[in-house]
Amino acid sequence: MTSANSSWVDKVKANKNIMSNKSLWSYILVAPVMFIAFIVPMVLWFIRSHHYGIEHEQDAAQLLFEKQSVVMHALGLGSMFYVLIGALGIIYAFTKFSYLFSMSKLDFYLSLPTTSARRIQSAYMVAVNNFIAIFLGVEAVAVLIAAAFGAINTALIIAILIQTVRMIIFFYTCFTITTLAILLCGTRMIALVLTAIMLYFPYILGEEFHYLNRMFFSTASELSENTAVLSPCNDVHSVANIIMNKFRFYSVDKVFDVSSVMNTYLQTVRYDIDMIVTAVIATVLVVFVYKHRRAEHVGKTVIFRPVRWACKVLVCVIASLGGMVVIRSILDSAWSRKLYIILCIGMLAICVFVGSLIEICLDSDIKSFAKGKRQTLMAMAILLLIFFIYKGDLLGYDSYVPSASSVESAALFYDDFGSMYDNKYYYNFDSRIDWSSYSFSNMKITDMDAFIPVVQKGMECARKCNGDFDKAEKYGWEQKVLYNLKDGRRVYRDIIIPYDIDPALMDKLTGSEEFIKGHAPCFYEGIFTTENLTMANSSLSCSFPGGDESTNNVSVIYDVVEAYKQDVLENYKYSYIRDTSAIGELFLTCGPTLSCNFPVYESFTHVIDVLKKNDLYGGKDYPFDMIKELSVDNYFPGYNFAEMSENEAMELYFKWFYGTREYGFQSKTYTDKDKIKEILDNCTYENYAEWEYPFDKVDKQFNLYFDDKYRDIFECNFAFKKGSVPEFIYEDLNK
């Protein structure tokens, strides 16, 4: 029994005995495990980086970056060893409070000359102090080893110090959450299950709501972030991913300096705030529950009835929402809006089944399957509320547009104007840009008066097609929207720019310098400099109808790129690019990995002049006299697109395009010079870089192919002009 009259010396001795109880195991077992987990992989990564750098002749700067990346990945903010830290927090909690599951052990602890408050304080002090001592010791050894490899600098020291504090907080959070689960349960197994629920249910719910958004809403984007709160595991995982994605590959503008490391970390500080808030809440609950737990609670599954109810309702809701996602995935290929009733019924059936299963597990009696009807009904009511909120879009998700005053910047992205592709590695500069990411990373539009009206039209079109982006071509151009809000949030939406959108509305947005520089990869800073082009042994190929030319002269390549930038700024806008076919392309290769492709238009006079000056312009006229034969294919025999409305032709074409219907096939090869000339006179070069809407320009009923000898020259991009198909084509191929 505890004694309030014990001497001060007796209390100190009792607390000392309790604090040292069962702590030796942590040094014997945990220290070697942490040593092996942190130091051995880091040393192996150092050895691998060193030999890889020698084998691939990396320069000193890149080799240093690779070694520093190892430190960041093992000890710094990008460390993935948080899994071990969290597991240790759980193990320590079960070790320190396992006596709560045994009446005999509980009687022994209650008989010691100390108070309940001192007992839990002692357990916390032993666990946290032991972990900190072991963790700091291992980290000190790891830092010394990293320094011996020459991989430590000021930025990494700061990153390691921040990560050390973060991991101590994460350990404390996992320890406290596990302690709370132990206090709420009377058996080890149920306590372990409850620990998993409390650690992961916010993240799981966040993921499920993310999938539900995409299931129910036409404008939901797969890029949307999981907005889970009070989820420490998600917090540390998100920070590690963001940091390592930032410093994943070598580049001259991505180095481990104090500024870049701190700026990147400050973008993620909200996750650490969430983890600290979670730790504080869990600590308060531990204190509250510990005061109300009694010895007679040993052996019960879940001690407090409200907690049992809440756990059952929560698990039923999570399992049912997850089951609904699975059902939707199974029915994906045959999905229609009418099948939502199946989702609702399946969701409720899963809820009933899971509720019965929970009662059986809690009572260890199969006869208990019918108990807890009120909790099951409560869970079903919550599920129905969620279902109808999503089905009716009662929160206005599909029409949400943030206020202009709350937006710091925005981006409209999907395809870029031109493309960049890095097949795998960095090569002395930042080449990690591909066709889909330049606009996403670099477009910063602040003129919301031009941006929001276009997005609203796109959202209306997306709702019209019920979010069926697999068939977006029927309605318009698929685009993605990003709002960078002033409060740090990033809001994503998928939209479809309708074919019939007002060109003046689009020109106001796309003709702005903000849009152009964020949309055309040729404006990417830091790549197209003379220094980088020289280091990468760059080459330029110019493909035009009159022939192809190439050069390795870096100064010429630089002049071409600068002239191209000027032409894009002067000419790019929606109405021009939509209605005009490119006359050629520039292919820029930088080293073994980076390739760029930029379309050239007839109005791009600056770049054409530079190309002519350096004998790189082949001319815009095609050598049609070289054509000896060509083939015309008709995938729609019996139909005449020229006599159909645009919408009718589109509906017919897309049924064939998506493979839902075949209309037959006819093909004919022409060798007669007069017929070939007539065909070519009625054709146009179909090279629309973006905003392509071919049905108002070309006849999509027929495909033209040149013989293999000349196919590379003409690239098979020719098509009949709308309303210009020769009569003999219909006679030969439309029987």
TrEMBL record:
Keywords: Membrane, Transmembrane, Transmembrane helix. The keyword Transmembrane applies. The chain crosses the membrane at residues 24-47, 80-102, 123-149, 155-175, 182-205, 269-289, 309-327, 339-362, 374-390. The keyword Membrane applies. It comes from the Bacteria. This is ABC-2 type transport system permease protein. The lineage of its organism: Bacteria, Bacillati, Bacillota, Clostridia, Lachnospirales.
